[in-house]
């Protein structure tokens, strides 16, 4: 049949074009019959003969009632909902075509397009020289052997120049592939997949060669012949060679092409070779090796991004907020690395959809469960063990991912021959579960639950514990080929407790809780190749329980105390447009308007005007009922960035943005502490504000093998919350009398050189940055350092990170990690004096001195299992030494008085080399 069809098609191509005879009219009816049967009925009533391939007509049913109707009109109706076209020759032969058409004459604009008409290439007409100019050609020598996908039905009366192609790209496990580049060969068109693996692109009618490129994914090429809007989903294989890579990036060209400044994508699979403390693969610790992101010290929780405070970072896990993303004071991350797909970090221009924080957004995404088969990954280390399991619920549609991690440090401490350590405890665990379900091509839902808990006791009479809990639900809906949207619901909770049971009669149980609930609608509208809009609305309810304390036991002398609850509502509307002005200039324009209302029930203290806030200036206390508005704040937040191509692999970017933050941390510690509390803006405490400008140069070398970027920034901040000397922050009803609000400024330059391919790969990052605070007032008690700018607690001018990985073979590699940082500022005692027969210490200006500089070298040797296709699990061994040089890096410096003398001491976290062996396996 196929040979006969081909011969007849060739004969048709040689026929001359003449006006066809009048097509006869017939009467015929069909009711849900196979289209092949319908064609037989037409043949029985006419002299026509149909020619086609049987597989074209499989599972096609037709219904129709035609009276005295031309055969051509009957066929138009029968095939209107299919991809079939037909051609009627002069000798009573009817040829069916799949997708495309046969032409018996050249199109009117074949020799030159007229105004408002399609060109030959746009219309999809190509000339087959050895057969004559009568057929659409879907093959050429350079692209033979490619998979050919035909979408839509060619209609010579359709004058649209472009059509929309969309779909989803997954790996062999059915998991979506985010940030995969799709490039249309020879047409300067491209796009990338989103976090769910979905893509949308406008393509010219006719033939398009789609190439895909992504780290860890094999490149592919597919020929798509497009005659209408359509959907094309496909699956790609992972690249085995990429298993050894240590690369932090989205796709090869994103650093040069994207308009946003200060954006980094970290993929967990690509950081497994970085030697980290106690063998833990840690996405947040890997982030600290990148320019512009630091911590206050080794083992410190929280991050300082571009001179910002730790509370100025919005850390999201599947759209839910995590307030303390660390275990054991920052030594371990609270984010399970095996369940995490990627983390996108915004530290320059933050997209308009995000708000509520000034410095950065860590948007961490849990990977989708495997909808194809049961899979998992696990590790065994010296202190922790970890496992993640994935199982399909409905094959190819839904799956469940469950992960858990725990430490056995308590068992280790009890095994040590040290009485003080035997009486100490240190335990933590975290669990995560995610359900993803594809309802149909237009609807997808994802639900995530997460819980982590730490409990530790440094002394025998006190037990500290803290926990994070979040749930989130996301519904993605495709309204049309151009419009998609997401409905997001999330709830997060952070709480801590202290249980003191000593020998005295002041035993107590203290608790604190912070809860927030958010609803968000996010829309995407692909207006054209030049305009891509994101817009939406969000609202978040904060509920803060500042703490309560109750006596522990009947003999306790502690009085019960509960600090009244705080509530606030933060809402926003946002819109952004990615506007391609021309081939060189891309502008990302965003506007967010945020509005905050402090809500009752509450008692608000009113103080005298032009006077310091203290008990002596208190005028009155105002009472507000539940949900009554106490105070409002808000304003516009501009998010503007632009990229200009100097050359195809060289671009310059600039950005300008501002933001509001309505929640603050209360802490007099140098680093983040589990007992830090959060305070909402109210009558006496204003929201924080920040303005940041960035300018950068981005260059790729040798086919994107090397990546170079240099980016500078300047940031101004207002209403930063700081503390008075000797402030009592915990369980204080009049907290505004213990804190100060002032200004801040930060500036710096970030340099990154990255090599993504080859036996030797890795990156070199250097940051020069300064961060200052100014606490000035007309009143002495509210002024620090005479009202001048002074270095912040985390001001570290120089920060160098080198991460390198060398592959000996596909299975064996060695890695190194070197870090150097300027010592952070501290306040030293510079003298003493006697008063009423007592000795007192006189301190320097705040943060006038610095602790010694920090540097550390880590090494590891990594061994992959064999790459056989048929085996139960793929293994990975890592042998690492943390702090090879045994550098006694100071974590903090403190002073004590001994025998009338003031003596300085320093504490360190890891002052000796720490060897680790970790075994991972993936199945």
Structure description:
The chain has 923 residues and is mainly beta. Helices cover 6% and strands 52% of the residues. The radius of gyration is 33 Å and the shape is elongated.
Beta-strand percentage?
over 45%
The shape, in one word, is: elongated
Task: Report Rg.
Answer: 33 Å
By secondary-structure content and strand pairing, the structural class works out as mainly beta
Mean pLDDT: 81
Q: Residue ranges: pLDDT <50 for 5 or more in a row?
A: 1-21, 110-144, 240-251
**Count of alpha and pi helical runs:** 8
The overall strand count is 57
Helix content: under 10%
Please report the distance between the alpha carbons of the first and last residues. Answer: 47 Å
- Largest beta sheet, briefly? 22 strands, antiparallel, barrel
Keywords:
single chain, 923 residues, mainly beta, 22-stranded antiparallel β-barrel, 6% helix, elongated, disordered N terminus
Concise account of the structure shown:
The chain is mainly beta and 923 residues long. It is 6% helix and 52% strand. The chain is elongated, with a radius of gyration of 33 Å.
Task: Tell me the layout of helices and strands.
Layout lengths: L1 H13 L10 E10 H11 L3 E3 L9 E10 H8 L5 E5 L4 E6 L21 H4 L23 E5 L10 E9 L10 E4 L4 E4 L5 E7 L1 E9 L2 E10 L3 E2 L2 E2 L18 H4 L5 E5 L15 H5 L5 E2 L9 E2 L7 E5 L2 E2 L4 E2 L4 E2 L6 E7 L13 E7 L8 E6 L3 E11 L3 E10 L1 H7 L3 H4 L2 E16 L2 E15 L4 E17 L4 E18 L7 E19 L4 E21 L9 E2 L3 E15 L4 E15 L2 E6 L10 E7 L4 E19 L2 E12 L1 E4 L10 E4 L7 E14 L4 E18 L15 E17 L4 E15 L14 E3 L6 E10 L4 E10 L3 E2 L2 E7 L2 E6 L5 E2 L3 E11 L9 E9 L9 E7 L2 E7 L6 E9 L1
Parallel strand pairs: 2-5, 6-12, 7-13, 7-14, 18-23
Antiparallel strand pairs: 1-3, 4-5, 7-10, 8-9, 8-11, 11-12, 15-22, 16-17, 18-19, 20-21, 22-23, 24-25, 24-57, 25-26, 26-27, 27-28, 28-29, 29-30, 30-31, 31-32, 32-33, 32-34, 34-35, 35-38, 36-37, 38-39, 39-42, 40-41, 42-43, 43-44, 44-45, 45-46, 45-47, 47-48, 48-53, 49-52, 50-51, 53-54, 54-57, 55-56
